[in-house]
TrEMBL record:
Name this protein carries in UniProt: AB hydrolase superfamily protein B1A11.02
Domain Alpha/beta hydrolase fold-3: 109-295
Family annotation (PANTHER family): AB HYDROLASE SUPERFAMILY PROTEIN C4A8.06C (PTHR48081), ALPHA_BETA HYDROLASE FOLD-3 DOMAIN-CONTAINING PROTEIN-RELATED (PTHR48081:SF8)
InterPro entries membership: AB_hydrolase_3, AB_hydrolase_fold, GDXG_lipolytic_enzyme
Biological classification of the source: Eukaryota, Fungi, Dikarya, Ascomycota, Pezizomycotina
Tagged with keyword Hydrolase: yes
Organism encoding this protein: Pseudocercospora fuligena
Alphabetized Pfam families for the sequence: Abhydrolase_3
Molecular function as annotated in GO: hydrolase activity
């Protein structure tokens, strides 16, 4: 179990990391501002190509990993392709099942399903939650066909918006008594609340949205507000503001929370980790002071990005039964 620092210390996490400061001083690291939801649709192909060419892609060890494409059906008859990662050499017995709402996860001989879902602005809240839940249940029902045995471990995870989805999935799975149960949840810089839904008792602690409003990098207050406008969630619903889940957080699986200090979502992760721990959930919290949202992907050369990658590996081992 991680020790969670007192909330009076959280603002100090926004002091910029010296390595990252050098990058900020030498180049423009900010995304162009967007105001029209149609821009997202138009930019999506270019963004996908940019992600494929990012330096972190070369840092992922894909040796011994086979990648396939599978189709996952949703409740309305629609289906979308998903990436399936599994050992290139079939192991003697099936490995754990990992369902990610983003790419990655090439470890522990696991079978990894990287899920696609219908996205905003074309598809508003809660469409992607329905798609994600359908995909999770499909992956579980078809685990043996995929070469997985979820009784050996069943992890869901995601980053940013994907972290929001994974957190919601863990609550739905608990409430719906999904079997075998999820054994671990990996949440990298997740969205779990909003300024208009934060409980009054926490409002004085929920300051990162203003403190890091002009944070350098891919996410600041303006871009966060724009993306929320495109998604158009009911911020009072636990399907978005999972911090306020109606049936609470007790009996959730082991959860790994990763927090960026220079991120408008900093306090989302810190508050969520604390509230899970209060509810008796085993929590591993890793904090990266002075770096922005998604730094491990955008700036993988940073020392803290290497630490994050190692922290994730250790956390996956922990969620699969290690100490």
């Amino acid at each position: 179990m991680s020790t969670i620092m007192d909330s009076s210390q959280w603002p100090s996490l926004s002091e910029i990391d010296p390595e990252f400061k050098k990058i900020v001083e030498s180049q423009n690291v900010n995304m162009p501002p967007m105001s029209d939801p149609a821009q997202i649709t138009a930019m999506r192909p270019a963004m996908e190509q940019m992600q494929l060419s990012m330096p972190y892609q070369t840092m992922v060890d894909r040796s011994g990993v086979r990648e396939d494409t599978i189709d996952i059906p949703f409740r309305d008859g629609t289906s979308l392709p998903a990436a399936l990662y599994k050992p290139s050499v079939q192991p003697a017995s099936p490995g754990p099942l990992v369902v990610l709402y983003h790419g990655g996860g090439f470890t522990y001989n696991a079978v990894v399903v990287s899920v696609n879902y219908r996205m905003a602005p074309e598809h508003k809240f809660p469409q992607l939650i329905h798609d994600s839940w359908d995909a999770l249940k499909w992956a579980l029902s078809n685990a043996s066909t995929l070469g997985a045995d979820p009784s050996k471990g069943f992890i869901v995870g995601g980053s940013s918006a994907g972290g929001n989805i994974a957190a919601v999935m863990s609550h739905l799975a608990r409430d719906e008594k999904l079997s075998p149960p999820i054994t671990g949840v990996s949440l990298a810089y997740p969205v779990v609340a909003s300024q208009d839904s934060i409980p009054k008792d926490f409002a004085h602690e929920y300051t990162a949205h203003t403190q890091n409003a002009n944070a350098p990098g891919i996410l600041n207050a303006e871009s966060l507000a724009f993306m929320r406008k495109c998604y158009d969630p009911d911020t009072s619903s636990g399907l978005y503001s999972v911090l306020n889940w109606e049936t609470g957080h007790q009996d959730l699986p082991k959860t790994h929370v990763l927090v960026c200090g220079l991120d408008p979502l900093r306090d989302d992760g810190l508050l969520y980790a604390r509230e899970l721990q209060k509810a008796g959930v085993e929590v591993k919290l890793d904090v990266y002071p002075g770096v922005p949202h998604g730094f491990d992907v955008i700036f993988p050369q940073l020392s803290q990005a290497e630490k994050l990658r190692k922290d994730k590996e250790e956390a996956f081992a922990w969620m699969l039964g290690g100490q």
